[in-house]
Amino acid sequence: MARRRTKKRTHLGARTGPSQGPTANSSASRAPKSMVIRIGAGEVGPSVSQLVKDVRSMMEPDTASRLKERRSNRLRDYTTMAGPLGVSHLLLFSRSSTGNTNLRLALTPRGPTLHFRVEKYSLCKDVRKAMKHPKGGGKEYLTAPLLVMNNFTSPPPVGGATPAIPKHLESLTTTIFQSLFPPISPQATPLSSIKRVLLLNRELSKPSSSKSSSTVEDGSYIINLRHYAITTKRTGLSKGIRRLNTAEKMLKDRKNKPSIPNLGKLGDVADYLLDPSAAGGGFTSGSESEVETDAEVEVVETNARKVLNKKQLEARRNNEGKAARREGPAVEKRAVKLVELGPRMKLRMTKVEEGVCDGKIMWHEYLNKSKEEVEKMERVWEGRRREREGRKKVQRENVERKRKEKGNSAKGDVGNQPEDEEMEDDDWDSDELEADGNMDVNEDVEDDAAYSRPTKVAVG
Question: Which pTM value belongs to this model?
């Protein structure tokens, strides 16, 4: 009798099957994951499409870098799959009818959502063209970038005036941006794993021109985004010595062979180090070894070590003295330099709302509601919440009743049951979504015609 085939690649119990991979609630999937999406796929234009690709590369490795959107896709399609895939953040790029580029940063599954207008942006290719020595894409994108945030907490206003940006909004925005990337521990995170820096600098709002106003700010919340790669080099060494240190790495690369110093005509390495004209580089003064960057740090050397067998290890231990054992790890000085990778963006926050793009407005840049209007809006939302709970209760009772009828029915009549007997919990609120989309609670929202058209600037 033939042996039954056991599928070992993708099925349950396989090495790479569902049981072996990380689940949505496992510790391996607790790292934040994001999806950068174009809403309206082909309608946003080629520049915004390229901007989406650049933002995906910036968010690597915990992002869907090969996501394919369709014009028929809706926001509900992405939010439905965010839970099973473990996606925690959605970055939605869209373009309005007036040509404004908008960005929505939403936390799944319950929000909140930050709405930004992209006032200016520069693509990665524009940044590379403006640089003399651009940084190529390599192993920098294998690890998440280091997030640096500046001016996200504004100082208290002078004279006890009411701040235009509430403090709870500043703390909320700070928390959302901090949750984009996995946290790091200064004691446990190795320095070699930090290859990139994502800089978010908030422009503090300028004083308002109207003296009669109770606030002293214009209420704008603007964030400048920059993306850099971290490069380091040893300090205190001449150019010739640095070239000798990197000669071993260059031997394996044919493209970099011309940069290796030619010592064939010299009798000793000292001639190359002391003679300025020897092999095109020498030590003439201390100016060559000066630090050319703004920062200098001390790091522990991470030199590669040869793997030794037991006999070699025993011989090495016997030859080492007690003084050598007491010595700590070697420390070297390195100069840190940042090379911009792109993209650049200037974001202006327009509003903050609860939920994933469908909740009540928590803050708006242009609209200010009185206490009576806020209380009225709260009553409307409370009524809608009660109606939603009532519909869910009725639907649950219907599902339970149909399940009991199905259990009491004969076995022959099981196949004749209608298809809607097995109702999913996710489909209960299908009629509710249309009602929430058409609600008039937050009327008089921002007028797109009043916004300025975003400009794609060239980096010079």
Answer: 0.68
